[in-house]
Amino acid sequence: MMKYQAYSDFTAQSMTLSALMSMYGNLEQNRGQRFELTPIIVFLGFSVESYLNSIGARKLPIWDDLERLPWRQKVSILHTTAGRIPDWGKDPLQFASEVFSLRDKLAHGKPERVVGPIVTNPFEAHQLYISGDLQPNCYRGITIDWVTQAKKRFRLLLVYLGQLFDLPESDHLLISSAGVLAKDEKDIQSG
């Protein structure tokens, strides 16, 4: 008697990339409103690293031993494997450096006091405080313009990484593949 089992093979980047694109969709719909940009930075980093792991797992049999390495080493290893030399001084790899620099500052930040200008009116000082303009240095690079431009740069980075191994331009967009396995009951009992 035959038995059947459904399966779905998820890509390493499917969940993080879907979450990131959902955040971008919300940002684009609420363009005129104050929007939290920090999660987008975090998920840019997550999505790049998960795609590195997706490529590495498919192209290097020893990737399980490498996946805990820092992202920059992973990129270097993929370039070496593909017979290429990374150019960290220009896009798309410069963008990766920017993303991971911001992500690392967010993840490893320390308490910091940010002081505004001296004013003569307490209401004016209070307004400065609630405006959100007093921010640590690491947040100053996170602007709506940078995040908006980052979407295109992000896509170009992922396409570039995939092209190291002649993967299709849309490879990073692959979410999952699925199917149904047919198994003979005899094989199930003996296995």
Describe this structure in words.
By secondary structure, the chain is mainly α. The chain has one domain. 57% of the residues lie in helices and 9% in strands. The protein contains 9 helices and 2 strands; from the N terminus they run βααααααααβα. The protein has helices spanning 14-29, 38-59, 63-66, 71-81, 93-107, 122-131, 137-140, 144-163, 185-190; strands at 2-10, 176-184. It has a two-stranded antiparallel sheet. Helix 1 runs antiparallel to helix 2. The longest helix is centred in the first third of the chain and has 22 residues, at 38-59. It is elongated, with a radius of gyration of 22 Å. The mean pLDDT is 90.
Round the Cα radius of gyration to an integer and report it: 22 Å
Strand order of the largest sheet: 1-2
Order of helices and strands: EHHHHHHHHEH
Separation of the first and last Cα atoms: 15 Å
Structural class designation = mainly alpha
Q: How much is the average pLDDT?
A: 90
What is the percentage of strand-forming residues?
5-15%
* Helix content class: 55-70%
Instruction: Please identify the oligomeric state.
Output: single chain
The major pleated sheet works out as: 2 strands, antiparallel
Q: In terms of per-residue confidence, which ranges show pLDDT below 50 for 5 or more consecutive residues?
A: none
Count up the domains.
Answer: 1
- Principal-axis shape equals elongated
Strand segment count: 2
Number of helices: 9
